[in-house]
Amino acid sequence: MIDLRSSRPGDVGNEKLTAFDQSTPIILGNAPSAGSSLLRVILSRHPDLYAGPELAIFDKQRLLLESPASFERNIGDWLENGYPNHFVGSGFRLFTHLEDYSWTFKDLFQLARESSDYGTMVKAFLDRERETCGAQRWVEKTPGNVFCFAHLRRLFPGAQFVHIIRDGRDCVASLVRRGHSPFRAVSRWFCATLAGISHREMPGYYELRYEDLARDPEPVVRDLCAFLDLPFHPAMLQAEGAGGRQIRGWKSNKNDRIATTSVGQYKKEFEAPVRSVFSALGLSSAGEELLALGEKRNLPRSALELQRHLGYDLDLICGAPGLDSKSRHRSRSEFRRWRWRVLRKYRRWYRSPTLLR
Which of 254, 255, 149, 241 is nearest to 201 (CA)? Predict the structure, then answer.
């Protein structure tokens, strides 16, 4: 495994990649509810690709920095109890949805004992799945990967990264429907999307929009295949029916045909408290550090600015009622509770990457 602490961005090269090795991984990352589940299903229909459900193995920055000695000492505990993660929107567990793969936990522990480092372990895990299915390349789809694109670029030189962007209002409306508070919903969309677009100059980065995919999928998928150096297959756009595993919290099965029913859903669900938080949320000083934006001062620093920067309109956001002191206190208390939970479980402090201005 490459020691990322001694790597500099220039170490992996700034060349424009035009051809990719057959074993080159494809890594998806995005805000939650941005459409990556649909995109993963589309890619899984390609005969050259293996694209399983999300594993949460690449969405933890510090885990990618662990030394081989630390890996050998702690991997058993990480697999059983999770890995402490410092960012909003990325969970603690590793190898989620393992039941959808050919591995058991016993197999996983055995693989960990046989691996010299974390990178070797996850590559062996995914390569076995890929070979079993007769595919040439594997795809990993976990939304929180978007926070680790630069780290993963060093771990897998030449890897390709696909960032799917969606209107913030629809993302937030979907997350609130799934039980998120307005503050947490807007924070997750804002931080993940901002992290993704900060990699626009990185070789191997590709960006597409959920709305384009839903409205006219064929040219979008053709362009993506061209970027991935793969032939386009019409089967990628053919609905498979209602079979397959239903994802908890989703109203429709992602194996159904591509539709536009989720585009513009915010118009029915964007209530005043959500609109107020969207218009008032911005990046905190901790967020500046955690996102490692560095010299990228041209990027937006608030949810409202990001929505505008991406070219979406501000319908139902501009003119939103101001936040009262009770709403501001509630959002701060929410992150204090979250921080204390992490402190008790992992003895590491959590800092909020966002705040209400």
Answer: 149
Q: CA-CA distance, 305 to 160, in Å (whole number)? A: 28
Q: Give 14-40 pLDDT, tens digit per residue.
A: 333 333 344 689 999 999 999 999 999
Contacts of 267 (CB under 8 A, 6+ apart): 315, 316
**Please, are residues 151 and 61 in contact by the beta-carbon 8 Å criterion?**
yes
Q: The pTM is what?
A: 0.83
Query: What ranges make up the beta strands (E) of 108-243?
Result: 137-141, 160-165, 205-209
Q: What is the bridge-based pairing of β-strands 160-165 and 26-30? A: parallel
DSSP of 287-343, one letter per residue? Answer: HHHHHT-TT-TTS-SBHHHHHHHTT---TTTTTPPPPPHHHHHHHHHHHHHHHHHHH
Report the amino acid identity of residue 10.
G
Q: Distance between CA 335 and CA 290 in Å, rounded?
A: 16
* Residue the block writes with tokens 């989620």: 96
